[in-house]
DNA sequence: CGCTGTTTGGCAATCGGTTGTCATTCTGAG
DNA sequence: CTCAGAATGACAACCGATTGCCAAACAGCG
């Protein structure tokens, strides 16, 4: 008579507000308001309802809540390649921030394909409240189409009128060039990443500015795929080149490049210095350990979600009142010096001149 | 007059079956059936409805569908640590399989905490159709509680009455031991991973069996954390030890261990051979490249989802008719020989005896 | 021509919350 | 004692699809 001798029904599914309402002798709407609109219900009544609900193990059904309100409590992060270690900490940071705010994070992998990305958006957009596009491979216009449907934040990229979170690539690049200059290098090559990459553009420009400013010979090769394989190809191309230092688009390429150099009998850093970007997992235990411009990966993910949450809050309370301050969050990068960079080798220097 | 001069309403949200029904001059139910129950609607009518729906840009609202049916088309995979490269390919494999079946994959990271895992389950269970627990940190009973609510598949672990997908650790370990034996090693140490780990138990047992069978001295040290830091500690402990070969619980530890050895002036593989488990990202470019028992990571994820999908299909069509064949999918592992293993060093061998 | 059987489409209930509106009760001031 | 106004809870209409049931239409058969 007391607890679970309910007899017939209610075997499978969990209790609803109707069950709780019946048990508490109130209307379902009151139960609903107890949870969703605190203060609207008399505190004694609310207390009683909460107690009974807890006893029955009531949990509000997210799907049922989402239907009338649109609040699914899910946000999505779309990454171009989950197997790229670049994203690990980003995802972790995003997840933590989302969880803390009561949101569930949906990670979608699109395997470097703009087409898959569009499909993933199609599938996830209707069920999320907002999205983070991490290193999107889509065009600005495609992004804007998505942003029209749900609040959107882009990561590692800037797109007009869409909030974004990026690393301070320019300053990082500048530091890297200075570091190499301090080591005596007078000729540096930038190994470019994928053509469409926003980050590649920024990095190259910063590289150009820094080298001209310091009166260093700055060259560019590429583009190459942003993978170890791409780095390997770059190593071949660079072998015939007279440069004593390279800065590569990212760590993955740098690692591949160093492996390529080893095969060709070129020693890092004695014959050539290598600098990467991002400080991904593995850049500390490759050989030699990689000097790299560290991106604040964890923060990148965290800020992206935070920005999105702010956007969501704004949207819900007055749609187009705010004049869109076009937020671009710029996070600092940091040069991590390890074993892959060293003073300019005299022998090679002679060959270079 | 033709396309979007609709005048007043319908600014914000997308069209519903009601809109389509009105435009086509049929009942909403007919529109619904057109999509969800092909054949139930006259093919001409269906064709017309489909055309009109396409013109209007109608897309069925997944939330609305989920409410009455419970079919959210989402499955979750819960991983103990997204930053562990072990999971990259697993997630990719899972995602691909899920997508192909029209499901969206929800990746939840629980940061190695059983508590966070329970919270993540709490949050995700009500909105997914099924879950994959990849390397769960929870107790069997907690897992069973979850499995009672939604179809569940466990990865890298076996739990009574719950379908599971695991690697053939035993055979892999046997191969590793034989490999070392062939190189002349007569004493091998197993560096254990976390105590609660199912895989650790299986690997240790297989190690024990293989060494006794080959009449090799098999020892065990640990447990250690399954990270690079754990491996580093292990290296210290092993330095005083007279062993010419170690097999570590996983690659991450093996990499950490090798770094520890280097610091102590112990050369790999000249002084000591190292074998890891899993073949994660980075095991090919650490120094020396790691010999490891490769787990079929991609397949692991793919099969887990496939098993789950099979379970879902079963559930929907006759709940408890099938007598539960208790499926355990066992995937083969493979020994990848690289530079971290070599013939037994005579000097060290003398010291060992 | 009448009867049965099969398509096919419509009606309406339902999933489980949310929320606008209204009625009731209670409080306190005049 | 009366009445305005606030506090509180109930009613009912949604959100958008699914689906059991029924009725109309139509075909086929004797």
Please give the domain count of chain A. Answer: 3
> What is the CATH T-level topology of the largest domain in chain A?
Rossmann fold
Mind describing the biggest β-sheet of chain A?
6 strands, parallel
Tally the helices of chain A: what do you get?
Answer: 13
| Largest interface (C-beta under 8 Å) | A-B, 41 and 41 residues
**Helix-and-strand structural type of chain A:** alpha/beta
Regarding quaternary structure, how should these chains be classified? Answer: homodimer
Task: Kindly report the name of the CATH homologous superfamily of the largest domain in chain A.
Answer: Response regulator
- Given this structure, which CATH class of the largest domain in chain A is correct? Alpha Beta
What sequence of helices (H) and strands (E) makes up the elements of chain A? HHHHEHEHEHEEHEHEHEHEEHEEH
What's the overall average pLDDT of chain A, rounded?
87
Query: N- to C-terminal separation of chain A?
Result: 95 Å
Strand content of chain A: 15-25%
Q: Please give the share of residues in helix of chain A.
A: 40-55%
